[in-house]
Amino acid sequence: MVNSKNSTSSGLLLAAVALIALNLRPFITGIGPLAADIGRQTGLDLKGMALLTLVPMLLMGVFAFAGPFLQARVGERRSVVAAVALLVVGSFLRFWTASGWQLVGTAALLGLGAAVVQAVLPGIVKRQFPRHVGVVMGLYSAMLMGGGALGAQAAPWVAAAGGGNWHVGLVWMAVPAALALALAARSLPRDVPVRQGRPAVTGYLRRPRVWLLMACFGLVNGGYSTAVAWLAPFYQEHGWSASASGSLLAIMAVCQAMAALLLPMCAGRREDRRPWLWLTLVMQALGFIALALWPETAPVLWVMVLGAGLGGCFALSLIVALDHLSDPAQAGALSALMQGGGFLLGALPPWIVAALRDATGSFGAGWLLHLSCVAVVTILYWRVSPASYPRAMRMTPSTPDACPAAGPSM
Question: Could you tell me which of 222, 217, 379 has the C-alpha nearest to residue 313?
């Protein structure tokens, strides 16, 4: 009977993790297919539209640093429940947005909710599923990317069904967020007290490895945020409709989800994740080259390859961060910091690509910019071998917040 209860509890928690993750991207990916209508009615230009991606990503970065504080002072469960409630409210408010700046305000509210979830939820996964971290984080990442597909595909459809009203195409996202809120309140475990000062953010930031992980995560997510913001408008410039370009973005997100689910399972057979990380980087490179040079040749193929590379790299990056430390609180804090610095870095490329588009008249320069970022990440990940984890995370003896070395990789 106890085992049955535990199994039911774990199943509900797994469902909650999946449904919460599903709601972390639709509010971003739903913008691109509706960008033309939103721009006409709100007066936002390309740089203004870029803020609808940049602001949430910046908040994901800033508030990810608060992950250890939220764990210690607020509690993981309360933080996640409150954050999902923000997703409900932010999506609901979009029905009444009349100006571009009001829409940016809702993007900030939604970005704050997503930021808190992303900062805290990996620590819960590490604690509740210690033997299946790779599989569960793969599911989390897959559902996150799947939510991106849902937003990109459903937003233009719902808007069309609502008489061409883009507000309707965005406000429906409050429904799955409300379902996630109900399930989170029902199934998330009670908060576990976390010892004050452990893990300390300042201690982690003295480790070069943390900055390396931030850089890799940020450069890859910059490619994701640019693709989400500008892939649909890019193909609309090539004559595609809003619905067709939204479907293309949805295809990319579906491939992200599949890769985020499957590649961690494959990588779980060995301690060293780098060969699989490099595979995802090769796929990203092929996708960005193709978008820059041959966008009309086989667009579905290009976005499938790019999506698989982005999604797989996102999931594996989260797992690599968790692999570095065996203690759930410490591993969760490291993941939060990696995401914090990474999302701050990843927030800028959509605006930069918009500026390049204004200067050159084409998105091609932006795609090539991300090709160079992929090359940098490929080199940086060479240093992230499992044998380096204990040394990379060890503090000097005089440091008061020293952490124990990483245990065996899950």
Answer: 217
